[in-house]
Structure formats: C-alpha cells, structure tokens
Amino acid sequence: PVVATPDVLVCGAGLSGIGAAVSAARGGAQTMLVERNGFSGGFFTAIIGSAFDGFVDERTGEPVVGGIVFEMLERLGVIQPGEGPKLRYNVNGDFSFVEMHPDRVIPRCDPERFKRASDDILEEAGVDILYHTQVADVVTKNGRVDSVIVSNKAGLVAIQPKVVIDCTGDGDVAAWAGAETEIAESLQPMSLHFRIAYLNPGFELKKFISNKLNTMQEFIITIIKQNAIEVIWIVILFFLGRLVLKLIVKRLARIVDDGDDAHSSQAEKRAETLSRILVSIGNVIIYAVILFMVLNLFGVDIRPILAGAGIIGLAIGFGSQTLVKDFVSGLFILVENQYGIGDTVKIGKSEGKVIRITMRSTVLKDKEEEIHYISNGSIKNVINMSQQKKSS
Fold first, then answer.
1. 331 near 362, Cβ under 8 Å?
2. Is the pLDDT assigned to residue 274 strictly greater than 80?
3. Which of 274, 290, 295, 315 has most Cβ atoms within 10 angstroms of its Cβ?
4. Considering only CA atoms, which of 372, 379, 389 is closest in space to residue 266?
5. In Å, how far are 67, 292, 313, 324 from 310, measured between CA atoms?
6. Which helix (DSSP H) or strand (DSSP E) does residue 68 occupy?
7. What is the C-alpha to C-alpha distance for residues 281 and 248, in angstroms, rounded to an integer?
8. What is this structure's pTM?
C-alpha cells in the first residue's frame, strides 16, 4: 500500500541526508526522510566518526561549504552564532593537525548531542521523519522513480514522491532505479573507530599515544625499505594469486556458458555455486600465505605458529566431527551435482528453492518466503523437482 506521497523523499539521514531534507523543507516542499537507524547522523553518529569530513580545506583551514554546517556547529556549541565563515578549522581532531594549527577550531562534538541537534533542526524545518525504516526496492515507470518500497513495523509499504534524493551512502536507490553505477573491486568498511568510556586523558597523554603510533609507523616503513625486494615479491604474489583465482572462475563460467542469458542451465548454476566456494577457499589460502610471509618479514618465527595451527586443526577435527561431516557432505553435493542454486528441492520435511549452498549448509526459501537452514551433514535424501522436470 502507498502510505505517503511527499514532494521530496530523502533516503538516508546521514550528514548529506540532513542537509538535503532541511533544504527541501525550507524551500517549501513537503519532505519525508527515511533512515534505517533509530537516529540521524549516519557516519557521524552510527560509526562514531564525529567529524565534518569535507567541510574545510585542510591546507588553509578555510570552510569550503557553509549554511547548515555552520548552523549545526552553532547548535552543538562548537562555535558562536555568526562566527562560522570567519573562523579557520582543523579537518578533525588529529594530533598532527592540532599541533601544527593550535589556533584552529576542531569541528567535533559528542555523537549523542549531534543526534539531538539533528532531530531539532529536522523537526523545526517540518520534515516528516521515519526512523527504523529500510529502503527495500524501487519501482520505476517510463525511466522515472514511481515508488520507493520501504520496510518497517508497518511491513513492506510504498512511498510515491515527486522527487527522490538518494543519500543512502551506497547509492541503493539510484542503482535499483537503473542508473549507471560503478563498484570498486575491494570495498573499505565504513570505519574501525571505537570509543573508550570513563577516560579523560590530557593533551600530554594524547600526544604520547600519537608519538608511539608515529614510531610504529616509522618502524614499519624502515622494515619495508630494508626488505624492498621481499615486499615487492609479496605484493606481486598477492595480486598474482587474486588474478589466477579470478581467471579460473571466469574460465569455469565460460566453459559452461550456453549462450542463453535469459535462463541459467543446470551446469551454469553448478558452476556459480562452485565459483563462490572456490573464491572463498582461494582467498583464505592467499591471505594466509601472505600473512605468514609478512610475519616472517618482521622477524616472527612462523614455525611454532604452523605447528600450533596443525595441533588446533587436529583437535577441531576430533572435537567437531559434525562440522567435518557437514563439509564432506557439502563437497559430495557439489561434485555429484545433486542440486544447485535456483533448483526446487525437497530435503526431509523442507521444500523450497535453493538460494545458497556452502560447504557447511544449504539454504532454502519456501512458498511462504520462509528461510530454511539445513546442515549438509543432516541430509539423508533429496528430491530435486527441477531435475525431474528437465528429464521429463
């Protein structure tokens, strides 16, 4: 059902989403903002970024954007009203920048205060906010977004806006609407930041920690310079291993490709399943080898580690016989082509479409959209309806 028809729908309440929603509402548009978390702020609050990245030119400290950013800093008590354009700022609280430019303002604050301030500015602008609401899909008509499907406590519902602004951070709405997108081969996590509570360190302690980190960085750089050839070989082996793995997967897909892109043959489904498992196992092997090479480069004796890994593996083998049984059964399922992704099967009392196969388990989705997780070791017999239809 259609639950709302705003002029503007902003998807994602991060820093960009807050700015877009407030600007649209203040411009007179009936604006709705949806956010999957129970608060706004995105990277600033959910990932504890606590910095206005992209706000200033780090060389000069001059702000390169203003408006709502200055208003938020004023609401948070970081600057006084009207002072924003006149001040110079550090990019964040990095000690090196603070020491070089102690006179600059640090545009940071507590994430909890930011949540409150963002709620205030959104409500004052007249933005309708739906928290705990995940964008699930997009419906397009004639090359334009007709509806955005969202999921929340009301279930799957539709919102029909005149204009959609995608601030999801992943470009989900734009991608699902059919816009051209690019995705990097290797993706970086949003952040590895963390906070320590009940600690009030002075500047000297912060400087001490920063110096230790700098010393560690210099140590790593020295090791790399002293072992330049070994480092180059490690890098080459890493990328060569990834390249070979990718070529094997592409070769496997090319061998079974029947030229019909509309339907996937049994061989293509099997190749897809094997490719996923091959990539997973291959990546583990590559990263393990590279890790041992790097440890050896830093002078760490890897022989005790290898011996310990062997003992641990043996212990796991004896203590986790069910896990080993699952892996062996999964291997035979793939080798014997008992079923593949997309097949409709009946395993015991569970019946549905195979949506994922791993060495550990098989995942089915039944007609009621319920998901069944079945350990491969527990499978006694399988009825593959898809293979029966093809043979008949």
1. no
2. no
3. 274
4. 389
5. 60, 14, 5, 16
6. helix 68-75
7. 13
8. 0.53
